[in-house]
Specification:
The complex is a heterodimer.
Chain A (H helix, E strand, L loop, with lengths): L21 H21 L65 H18 L6 H13 L15 H13 L40 H11 L6 H17 L9 H19 L4 H15 L7 H34 L4 E6 L3 H12 L4 E7 L6 H11 L3 E5 L3 H4 L5 E5 L2 E2 L5 E4 L2 H10 L4 E4 L28 E2 L2 E2 L10 E4 L3 E4 L6 E4 L2 E3 L4 H11 L1
Parallel strand pairs in A: 1-2, 1-4, 2-3, 4-7, 7-12
Antiparallel strand pairs in A: 5-6, 6-11, 8-9, 12-13
Helix pairs in contact in A: 5-6, 5-7, 6-8, 6-9, 8-9, 9-10, 10-11
Chain B lengths: L1 H23 L9 H18 L5 H18 L4 H22 L3 H5 L3 H7 L14 H17 L1 H7 L1 H4 L5 E5 L3 H11 L5 E5 L6 H11 L3 E5 L4 H5 L4 E4 L3 E2 L5 E4 L2 H10 L4 E4 L15 E7 L2 E6 L1 E4 L6 E4 L2 E3 L4 H8 L8
Parallel strand pairs in B: 1-2, 1-4, 2-3, 4-7, 7-11
Antiparallel strand pairs in B: 5-6, 6-10, 8-9, 11-12
Helix pairs in contact in B: 1-2, 2-4, 2-7, 3-4, 4-7, 8-10
Classes of the chains: A alpha/beta, B alpha/beta.
Chain lengths: 531, 342
Amino acid sequence: MYHRYVVVALSRRKPNEGKELTKEEKQRLRKQKKHQKKQKERKNEKGPSETEKDKTPVSLLPPPQPVATQKAPSALPAPASAPIPVPASAPFHSSPAPSPADKPAKSKAELKAERRARQETDRAAKQPGSSSSGIKTKVPLSELNPVVKRLPEHVQVDDPAVVKRLAKKLERQQIPLRSDYGYKVSLFSHLHQYSRKAPLTQLLSIPSTVIHPSIVRLGLQYSQGIVAGSNARSVALLHAFKQVIRDYTTPPNEELSRDLVNKLKPYISFLNQCRPLSASMGNAIKYIKKEISNIPSQCKEEEAKTKLLTCIDRYIEEKIVLAAKAISKYAIEKISDGDVILVYGYSSLVNNILCEAFEKSRKFRVIVVDSRPRLEGREALRRLVQRGISCTYVLISALSYILPEVSKVFLGAHALLANGYVMSRVGTSQIALVARTYNVPVLVCCETYKFCERVQTDSFVSNELDDPDDLMVTRKGKTQLENWQDVSSLGLLNLVYDVTPPDFVDLVITDLGMIPCTSVPVVLRVKNLDQ
Amino acid sequence: MPGADKEADLTERIEAFLADLKRGGCGTGPIRGSGETARETTALLRKVTAQARWSSAGDLMEIIRKEGRRMTAAQPSETTVGNMVLRVLKIIREEYARSRGSSEETDQQESLHKLLTSGGLSDENFRQHYVHLKANVIEAINELLTELEGTTDNIAMQALEHIHSNEVIMTVGRSRTVEAFLKDAARKRKFHVIVAECAPFCQGHEMATNLSKASIETTVIADAAIFAVMSRVNKVIIGTQTVLANGGLRAVNGTHTVALAARHHSTPLIVCAPMFKLSPQVVITTVVRNRIILSKVNVHCPVFDYVPPELITLFISNIGGNAPSYIYRLMSELYHPEDHDL
């Protein structure tokens, strides 16, 4: 139904394309000019270490139907950096458009001309032929404009310029910057590593004027691991946003549709600092921002707020609750009597499936595989045993021992990447590998809202590093790694995610049906077209 | 009487050794490393040879076999004990043959022709008495002991041939042999080691602390991250509890996963194992410890994994490097086929 794309904070450049209200366009241009001026002064401090960034804004799929509403469809509907970088890039109208130090030749006038030219072409393209068939004719456009993907900040920690920029942005938003902890393994020096003992909230003043209290609470719950698991985190996020919307009042001379989005930005930065956003959270945030921007300006505040609240409720209901029911329905077809099912860690979806299958009187038993240091499998074990399902518990190192007994493996996913790789809790790829060796079918269960456009082939380039102190353990009264910080050549690595190649996965069960791993980009495309 | 005292002393030592073995096997791994166990076993067998009353080689072999059975029964999973008994038996046969005057070649040859024509036992019954047999046997056992003492150093000496600089090496759990191997290479080369901690006993932590004290760049990872980091690993070097006759391994649990991950990434898997770990058994059923049943939950905690020989690239032992396909040959040089079942 919604034919436009979110006015994205993802782009640092000036994506001024498509039909837009002159008033907004003028405002934006004014702000950009201001920033370019400021930026020229700052250019001297920024050394040549600035990463090269293409100034050409990107246009993937221009909106299929021009609908007469205000918001300018902007480029980058779902760029490769979809899940995470929402907070990483500042609001486009207030961020300094980075001028690559290696392209001093492009003057302001040239850029303006470029932009105007692009607007003309887009306007022309949007003429009469823009019906749904126009979508298909416009698809080739995406191949013409190469997608320049902006790297999210959280995988560029080793670049001091990026870190400085982030610090400045956070300072502007009045959010404290969380500092890295401990010795980082050199292979992962491009990622953050925080300590759980130093939560971000310690650096906040109480009461915090900038950040809504429910967001502060949420951030703390994330960083301490109280709310964990991608579904739980998304739902908690959406509920917190509902509270924010309820408490929101539009300031005078401002429009709800734009101001609320701007209000949400510092919250998202804060949550990202507490714990990097997950793919599901990123998609949820994109959805909310889109909904907010679509509020017509004539809409009264109360009406707008109720509309947003119902939108969020519907999102949760459709994408999470009903999706879980649909997935259970498909998955139960795959569970037969006498099965021995292996599950790993705690996945709310897989647990749901097993409980429902048990209620439908399927006879099976479950093997729960767990791993240090999180030991999430114990929670899954507890819930399954409570229902009365007979369970076995092993650690992941006992996998080769237990697999000959197993008939099926059910895995949950954190995100499904566009090249078919499954991003999930660390250890999942190992389970898939050993299951493949023993010819045991591996089924991954994942809702479609977790699909993301990123591509990744190994677990290094983008990951999350958890608190390294979690690896310490006391055995026989002795903690071997107690003073690991003092030993300069010793490092602890606590990875959170890993990617499983698609050839290890036999089937992906989604709310749209049962698909092979390689069909993920098809689903993504269908979703984009729907929107 | 001095004789009786010595005998009492001997039995005491054997009892103490058996008690140690029985205790050492539950949970956290043996109290002593397998090298020490091997040396202790051999020393005890030497004492038995010296002090027990026997008149012919056959008697001695019976006594050793009896003691050997007792020792292996105390701790079936500690195969080094059985291996040492077999070595000593082989030594006795060799010395007997040498005393008889027949060349070693003809007796030890297990040519197919011989096997088919001799049809069963040879006419050896080891009944003849030779005066110097005792001294010879004890001397040979002393040689064996010296060999045992030098195994770790022999293996460590080969380290520089296999590790180049700036490598990333992965290892699992704690192995004294691998520790010595890596420390020796670290004297001359700079490389990075990733240690998988091997839950639940987490012996990898001790290994990591020891390695980092030798100024080796070490990283500890959880078992779950083995496949995730394997793509950046250049070599996997592991130790093992036993080397089986087909070239397979019986190693600490989690090793099979490491081997599979290494094969997937085409990373060489190198096993550092001294010769005394070589066992004539082919497949051993997995040993499971600590089977706790809490209401409706079974918990399994296997101690060892079986790793098939196809996943292994190289064995480094005190006599040099070998492919897994050659292990059966080495075994025939160490043990006599008639002794394989104690």
